[in-house]
Queue: 2 jobs
Job 1
Amino acid sequence: MMKILTATGMFFLGGMMFTACGSEGTNGQEQTAEKEVYQCPMDCEDGKTYDHEGQCPLCEMDLKKIDA
Ligand SMILES: [Zn+2]
């Protein structure tokens, strides 16, 4: 009887962990897919990107929207 209870508890905990990990992964993918990325057209910050429109702090050109 104790073995059955232990096995049920392990299964329950395992399911909780699996569900948590699964939801985190899904949320991360959705955020990445919807995220807009902006980058200096001259790339003077070595690939640095921004998540909003603006100007490059180095050359002051308008940031260009790019595909992630
Ligand atoms: Zn720049």
Note: The radius of gyration is 22 Å.
Job 2
Amino acid sequence: MSKADDYVAGIIAGKARIAAKAISLVENGDSSAIEFLKALYPHTGKARIVGITGPPGAGKSTLTDKLAKLLRKKGKRVGIVAVDPTSPFTGGAILGDRIRMQELATDPGVFIRSMGTRGQLGGLARSTHSAVRVLDAYGSDFVFIETVGVGQSEVDIVQLADIVLLVTIPGMGDDIQVIKAGILEIGDIFCINKADMDGANRLAAELEMMLDLKGHFEGLRPPVVKTVASEDKGTAELLESLLFHLAEDENSGRLAERREKNLKTEMLRIMAKALENTVSRLTEQTGALENYSRQIMQGALDPFSASEKMLAQINNIQFRL
Ligand SMILES: Nc1nc2c(ncn2[C@@H]2O[C@H](COP(=O)(O)OP(=O)(O)OP(=O)(O)O)[C@@H](O)[C@H]2O)c(=O)[nH]1
Ligand SMILES: [Mg+2]
């Protein structure tokens, strides 16, 4: 049995240690990971992938913790990937999240993983996609991906998740402006957390009004749900909304449509990455950049023709995570 087969067998047998090791390989960009990811793919697709995004400190982790506990009561297995854009560290724990999710961390039906984005500005960790696939094959019924909603990460999470829960909080002043500028397109469910603070009702009314104005929705109209995550209030209703939305999307075919669309984006990303990797290896190994730039400087060539020549030398595409 190959190493890849060992990983696949361990992951689908629900062995936490092997799943953790597999995610580490993926995080380290180990090219051997591609082998087991290929073999793992047929074992994926069962988990529902839930993106949770919103401003820093909005209560995303607290909400995830509560939703996960409710799902555990229903006998569901839960995977959680917390992406921390500020952390250069990977594999380890984000202390705050671990504290907030301490009880969950000892539950064998829950797998929690924190990932740093390694200095990539915005966006998901490069390996988030693959980590989610591992947790899917591992037997999670739901995989939550928590990201801080800054710039690119919102867009990225839409391209990965089956459903996106957008968390907002009252009292952020012009925050609603941010919502207007495109957030409306991203959330499938709007959660107004910290509803114990002033302004929650007004924020809810404003959101509903903006949804009225938008008028047209590809799937269900996004519900607006108020919660106080720290007191576990409204969280059961939030979960209801989430499950209802997912069921509707599945029945209407929208879930499959969305997954297909996301797959296209993923393939484009894989190919772009592979070409970039192949080009940089080629130019490093052959010193072609130096050669050609010299020729261009001497007036013997132009950058397009030089690039054409270099690309023509590629006979083997090297994939990278
Ligand atoms: N008043 C109030 N505080 C809350 C509520 N939910 C969470 N908190 C508190 O808000 C703080 C931030 O909560 P987190 O769950 O860490 O928020 P987060 O969005 O995951 O934060 P980052 O991951 O750092 O962006 C914690 O101190 C929570 O206890 C709520 O509904 N009301
Ligand atoms: Mg958090």
Note: The chain has a mean pLDDT of 88.
